[in-house]
Design a protein that fits this description.
678 residues; 18 helices; alpha+beta
């Protein structure tokens, strides 16, 4: 390791991965340079780097995907190398070439390896030529929709649409029948173009209920390539990994598991060596649960994976932990690996959960807003970008943090991760913490019986907690206590009047309905009635007591009057309504009860208009697609609520919209038409 390292490295990414890379650079004594968009000016990675440079506007195309801006930032900061993290430009061959032309080291594989393995079509054809089994399908460059439609019958249904560029499950669509294919192709192309700048697609036969096993490889420029064991990433939703672990439970449960691990590891090393791979990379396989000896190559990710921490937690090099980012930097600087395959062992078990800003009870709609408070758990590794005051934007992926638990065995790791999720507190946005705990407790997950369709099968069995009378009573008490004290009797908030005190009436929106509460102040607290149930809320020892029991619910107040709650991994929000909002809600409720038709089509989330499918004044039918709104790389289709004439808001693709903003109004052909859910 005598080859000198870099003096300055620019981190061309954001969020938790940028923070994680900066941490290793600091340990190596290397100056770090952060880059940021306008939306990320206050982000954690910006404050933790030695230097930070603005790239451009909030959209990724104007900032993190702007190759010229990143190169300019390198030159301005004197960065000798760039670490791309994952996503964004990490597998962009034009970016790697631009760095090479500018004399800046790319901390990643050579250009030809990215070009070959970073493209799913080329990589699939390459490994197939080297006798590696692949899933049946059609994978050729520049296939049009018409060619894909024509080839689909031969591939067979069900099939999977996959973008040639990128990864992370974005742009992948399962199709069960021919009539679903045209719209799925259009959506896949939109997603791929937006996420990766390339809308090339290919088709594969959909393998039902497979297990997703990936192998981490590490290679230097001097001919040494090793694998670092495997990870199981079978727990996925919409092809996006949710829970990852190492080693794979599939192999741990098999008598011949060690032999299969050796075979699949050797296959991954051979795939990397076939393209002269250098650096850290991951070879992904589909493995048959019924016949684990049979596996199919899926793709090679020519970058660091989101789930790399579970490998770092279990792999030992002569008894010591391994830092993959450390080795990425050393290899890029020309150093040799100082260990061989025989020096590597696996120790214990590690499981990672991805914490997202989303609402599982509302079909995982993204959640945006300002972080009011964060309390991260002890006893586990937390890779996070969270800080109080951070604005969670709709422009980027919704992942907030990763919680990684290690223990001597899998059962211990599961228990430790569940405790960490229980202790984790995020106030200001909704998270998937409760969903993750439900998933970890699921019988098949506990037993290690995993496959990529498990979440889809089990989702209907999950019951998500909603804000109840207890939380609304807390909100009513807290809101009254948060009002500024009046200096006159007329502004006092004690409900005093001659005789019996007057109850204070408040209305809260809990995300599903408007609930009325009444409150009577008591010495040191409040007597609150919600839906006929009474709660005595009192302040005790800098905390709260409700009906004589100490409240463990954490809470915080946002500027818009929303009270945020967190308890045991669950999060929720209830918003105090203004008088005019209460009146509007009451009028709308009366109209619905009378059978009146509600013509407005609202955006369910803040985001960006991706496409408008109809023209103003057009005749539409109930359920017809009107527009598509995207936020945090998730598309949501807005449908006509009834037959009629559509009147569009003045919106075009690229415009941003707020949650519950009117996108269109449908003038019903039948004035007696009843409202149908959009």
């Amino acid at each position: 390791m005598n080859t000198p390292l870099f003096d300055t490295v620019l981190v061309a990414n954001r969020g938790e991965i940028a923070v994680r890379i900066i941490r290793t650079l600091r340990a190596l004594g290397i100056k770090s340079v952060a880059v940021y968009s306008d939306a990320d000016a206050g982000a954690l990675h910006v404050s933790q780097a030695d230097t930070a440079i603005r790239l451009g506007g909030a959209p990724a195309a104007d900032s993190y995907l702007n190759i010229e801006a990143v190169i300019t930032a390198c030159q301005a900061s004197g960065a000798q190398a760039v670490h791309p993290g994952y996503g964004f430009l990490s597998e962009n061959v034009d970016f790697a070439r631009a760095l090479e032309a500018a004399g800046i080291t790319f901390i990643g594989p050579p250009v030809h390896a990215i070009n070959l393995m970073g493209d799913k079509i080329r990589s699939k054809n390459h490994v197939q030529a080297h006798q590696v089994p692949v899933v049946p399908g059609i994978a050729e460059p520049s296939l049009s929709d018409e060619q894909l439609l024509a080839a689909a019958a031969e591939v067979g249904y069900p099939l999977l649409i996959k973008p040639s560029a990128g990864g992370g499950g974005k742009g992948m669509f399962a199709v069960d029948a021919a009539e679903q294919l045209p719209e799925a192709l259009a959506s896949a192309r939109r997603t791929a173009l937006k996420a990766f700048g390339d809308d090339t697609l290919f088709l594969e036969r959909l393998v039902r209920n497979p297990r997703h096993i990936e192998v981490q490889v590490l290679a230097d420029a001097h001919g040494t390539t090793v694998h670092l064991g495997e990870r199981e990433c079978s727990l996925q939703r919409r092809h996006q990994k949710v829970i990852e672990e190492a080693p794979a439970p599939l192999f741990e449960h098999l008598e011949r598991g060690a032999q299969i691990r050796e075979r699949i590891g050797a296959a991954a090393v051979a795939a990397a060596q076939s393209v002269g791979y250098v650096g850290a990379g991951t070879v992904e396989f589909l493995v048959s649960d019924e016949n684990p000896d049979e596996f199919f190559f899926m793709e090679m990710n020519t970058r660091l994976q989101v789930e790399h921490p579970v490998t770092e937690e279990v792999v030992r090099v002569r008894g010591q932990k391994l830092d993959l980012v450390d080795w990425q930097v050393r290899i890029a600087a020309g150093q040799r690996l100082d260990f061989a395959q025989d020096d590597l062992t696996l120790h214990g078990h590690a499981i990672e959960a991805r914490l997202y800003a989303e609402d599982p009870s509302a079909n995982f709609l993204p959640s945006v807003g300002r972080i009011l408070e964060v309390r991260e758990p002890d006893g586990v590794r937390v890779d996070s970008s969270l800080r109080s005051g951070l604005e969670i934007s709709a422009h980027y992926d919704p992942m907030l943090a990763k919680l990684i638990a290690w223990a001597p065995d899998r059962a211990g790791a599961l228990a430790r991760l569940d405790r960490a999720l229980e202790q984790n507190v995020v106030l200001g946005v909704l998270t998937n913490g409760e969903y993750l705990r439900l998933l970890l407790a699921e019988e098949d997950v506990v037993a290690g019986r995993l496959d990529t369709n498990l979440i889809e099968r089990k989702m209907g069995e999950f019951t998500f907690r909603a804000p109840g009378p207890r939380e609304l009573a807390l909100a009513a008490h807290l809101h009254c206590q948060s009002l500024p004290a009046s200096r006159t009797p007329w502004g006092a908030r004690d409900g005093w009047r001659a005789g019996q005190h007057r109850p204070i009436t408040q209305h809260f929106d809990d995300g599903r309905q408007v609930v009325e509460t009444t409150l009577l102040p008591t010495p040191g607290g409040s007597l609150v009635t919600v839906s006929g149930e009474q709660f005595l809320v009192r302040a005790v020892d800098s905390g709260l007591e409700i009906n004589a029991a100490r409240s463990t619910t954490k809470q915080a107040l946002a500027a818009d009057g929303t009270w945020w709650f967190s308890e045991s991994g669950w999060s929720a929000a209830v918003r105090k309504l203004r008088r005019e909002e209460v009146l509007d809600q009451q009028l709308a409720s009366r109209a619905q009860q009378s059978g009146a038709y509600c013509p407005d089509v609202l955006s369910p989330m803040p985001g960006t208009v991706i496409s408008v499918q109809v023209s103003d004044g057009q005749q539409v039918v109930s359920g017809q697609l009107l527009a598509i709104v995207e936020a945090m790389k998730m598309e949501h289709q807005l449908l006509a609520p009834a037959d009629g004439i559509v009147h569009l808001a003045a919106l075009t693709p690229g415009d941003t919209v707020k949650a519950k903003q009117v996108i269109a109004t449908v003038e019903a052909a039948d004035p007696e038409a009843e409202e149908q859910p959009a």
